[in-house]
Amino acid sequence: MKLICSKNLLNDAISMAQKAIATRSTLPILDGLLFEAEGDTLTITGYDLETGIECKIDTDVIIPGKVVLNAKMIGDIVRKLPEEIVNIEVEANFIIKITSGKAQFKIKGIEAEDYPKIPIVEEAEQMQVSQRVLKEMISQTIFAASSDENRPILNGVKVVADNNRLELIAIDGFRLAIRREEFKEELPAMSFIVPAKAMQEVSGILDPTDNPVKIYPSHNHILFDTGSVKLVSRLLQGEYMDYNKVVPNEVMSQVKLRTKDMLNAIDRASLVINVEQRRFPVTVENSDKETLIISSQTDLGEVHEEILIDLEGENIDADYNPKYFLDALRNIPVESIYLEFSGTFGPCLIKPVEGEQFLYLVLPLRR
Amino acid sequence: MKLICSKNLLNDAISMAQKAIATRSTLPILDGLLFEAEGDTLTITGYDLETGIECKIDTDVIIPGKVVLNAKMIGDIVRKLPEEIVNIEVEANFIIKITSGKAQFKIKGIEAEDYPKIPIVEEAEQMQVSQRVLKEMISQTIFAASSDENRPILNGVKVVADNNRLELIAIDGFRLAIRREEFKEELPAMSFIVPAKAMQEVSGILDPTDNPVKIYPSHNHILFDTGSVKLVSRLLQGEYMDYNKVVPNEVMSQVKLRTKDMLNAIDRASLVINVEQRRFPVTVENSDKETLIISSQTDLGEVHEEILIDLEGENIDADYNPKYFLDALRNIPVESIYLEFSGTFGPCLIKPVEGEQFLYLVLPLRR
After folding, report:
1. What is the pLDDT of residues B236-269, one digit of tens each?
2. Which pLDDT score, from 0 to 100, does residue A122 have?
3. Mind telling me how many Å the CA of B95 is from chain A's nearest CA?
């Protein structure tokens, strides 16, 4: 392999492919990136056996070939090279010579034959959506995915397309996040569950622009293609929780409030709570139809907060893990929301005042 | 104690006093800040038994008094308060009530009597210098102070004032940093050694402006006073290393080069070196009078760098720990420097092309 390429293009491609590299891999070769030069293209691939990211850049290929290079080392080297033009050449025994201006590196490569193959996803049935919209939808749901290894199916984000609507769903047994988006175009009907870790990486390859990302699901895998970057992930298989069942049909109290008021009050109430411990709740109750009281009391101290609301229905008095509210409230894209309570032991729903763009559900703690 | 004050002033004062709090203290009271309200002033003090920082803010004191509050907790609370006006009141049993708008906190305080007293430094003989200049001088020397507990005197930064000149010196046995500044005004002759940790905190209380900081040394302690903030540190006592002796009088080779060229070349050469391990050096040698070669060779690979120089004197060929060069080169405030070599086993001096604003010395590694 021998090629001449741009430092900046190379740097961007390495940074992107590195996202697929596990922080602690079991095989040294999985700490590497696969470099393949052919035609006038250099393809750089990172793969942790679950998610693979592949970036292509235009280069001047003098001798085609391939090699695996330690991702961290090649990333550090390329970032610090002095000139925009970079020469890369594989010498005998997989010694890689990298030259840029008066700087010359020789590092050891690994034989490319041993690099695991990323599953091939046929580019057949596809869906195409705005990168910015999908990126937002991921960030507004992914925090609610479970990390409990005993329920692996809930470690994924469920994606459902139907008619003009796309839905992302995450649920961990204590809370639920649904984010919906309506499109002008009809979407092909499809449904699949992407591991949350891979979904985080999908978010990383998406731009905050309306450029499209093409999505190709197959039986076991899914391909996200932005044009310059391809990401392949395995899919989770199995029965997902029937989340529609946990959403109550009847509501005892409905509260309208400003998202920020609730976020700030719960954030402050958490200051006396070790949020990782679930045993200290915040209590949410109303003093009258216009005032919601958010309070907490622990070994460390007590906090009492009041926020302005419009309450319709019965009085409220329930305990919650503040983290679940904070995760949702920090990601809600609208100024005002409804909270819908179903009594002291029923869930609390968080909804937009208009439409059904999102739905969050938080279960109360036992008293 | 009962007072009304500004959230922003309170927040700034707490952040400043927190700098003196050790990350892991042995006594819970040392995790606290002392709040003292008297007259129309609130004084907030942090002290780790070595360095104390005291900040005064104007407040409306209704009932004078004092109390100790956990620094992290009061800091987090004040930062997140909703309104600019903050009420603080000590209730029975050292319960502290903090109110701002509709947010109310009650946290436990600690009796102030148990808080250690910061040593009083008499404000007698003093020196006054620009905060910006002292801040720069600290950052350009402090990295060379030793952290070896067997030579505690070298864990300090030596400060020497004489005539119009101020000098800061740090030395760890392998390298030396001297930073000098000439002032228009005569400085009082004085010399003292401040623990490097405290010197770091001094840097933290200084503004990057030419507002003066007053410096009052006593036998055992030193007081830095910026007007709004006072910092008291103990001084290190003992015989400091005679650093003038380690600077060679005769030079075998002198090289003129661009600071950045050397910094970038050594930075890249370090990419194949685990910099914390000292056993892999960079080799510095010249190929001709105009080219300096910086190279390294380890298990990970090899790097070869060439930079443009003007060499006078004998040829160069010596090995160095790259970290020592990087620390100095990153903090050098001029574009071009001289390196002066005294052969393969003598030290390398780094000097400005004009004047004697700084002097760095790096010892070579044995071959």
Report:
1. 999 999 998 989 988 999 999 999 999 999 999 9
2. 86
3. 9
| Residue among B270, B286, B248 nearest B325 (CA) | B270
pLDDT at residue A5 in the model: 97
Yes or no: say if A147 and A173 are a contact pair by the CB < 8 Å rule. Answer: no
The span from the CA of B177 to the CA of B170, in Å, is: 5
CB A29 within 8 A of CB A114: yes
DSSP 8-state class, residue B272: G
Contact criterion met (CB below 8 Å) for B46 and B57: no
Query: Which secondary-structure segment (H or E) carries B365?
Result: none
Contact by Cβ (8 Å): A31, A20: no
Distance CA A16, CA A21 (A): 10
B303 in A contact zone (CB under 8 Å): yes
Of chain A, the end-to-end C-alpha distance in Å amounts to 67
> Is 3.10.150.10 the CATH number for A2-114?
yes
CATH 3.10.150.10 in chain A, residue ranges: 2-114, 127-243, 251-362
Q: Which residue has the higher pLDDT, A235 or A26?
A: A235
Measured between CB atoms, which of B106, B108, B268 is closest to A80?
B268
Architecture of domain A251-362: Roll (3.10)
Kindly state whether B330 is in contact with chain A, defined as any CB-CB distance less than 8 angstroms. Answer: no
Q: What residues of chain B lie within 8 A of the CB of A306, using their CB?
A: 102
Cβ of A103 within 8 Å of Cβ of B265? The answer is yes
Which residues make beta-bridge pairs with A204? none
Q: Which two tokens stand for residue B17?
A: 């006093």
d(CA A56, CA A35): 10
Determine contact, residues B264/B277, Cβ cutoff 8 Å.
no
Q: CB–CB of B106 and A301 under 8 A?
A: yes
Helix (H, G, I), strand (E, B) or coil at B153: helix
CB of A287 within 8 Å of a chain B CB? The answer is no
Does CATH place domain B127-243 in 3.10.150.10?
yes
Whether A73 has its CB under 8 Å from any CB of chain B: the answer is: yes
Instruction: Judge whether B195 and B142 are in contact, CB under 8 Å.
Output: no
> Measured between CB atoms, does A275 come within 8 Å of chain B?
no
Lowest mean pLDDT across A341-345, B147-151, B242-246, B284-288: A341-345
Taking residue A12's Cβ as centre, other Cβ atoms within 10 Å add up to 17
Domain with CATH 3.10.150.10 in chain B: 2-114, 127-243, 249-362
Query: Alpha-carbon distance A1 to A36, whole Å?
Result: 8
Q: Looking at the complex, does the CB of residue A272 fall below 8 Å from at least one CB of chain B?
A: yes
| b/e sequence A29-63, b meaning 16+ C-beta within 10 Å | bbbbbbbbbeeeebbbbbbbeebbbbbbbebebee
Q: Which residue of A has its CA nearest to B302?
A: A106
Two tokens, residue B282: 């960079």
Q: Say yes or no for a CB contact (<8 Å) between A102 and B307.
A: yes
For residue A363, which of A156, A142, A172, A179 has the smallest C-alpha distance?
A: A172
Enter the ipTM. Answer: 0.89
Count the neighbouring beta carbons within 10 Å of the beta carbon of residue A188: 12
Q: Parallel, antiparallel, or unpaired: how do β-strands B95-100 and B85-90 relate?
A: antiparallel
Q: Is the pLDDT of residue B342 over 60?
A: yes
Dihedral (CA of A10, A13, A16, A18) sign: negative
CATH fold for the domain made of B249-362: DNA Polymerase III; Chain A, domain 2 (3.10.150)
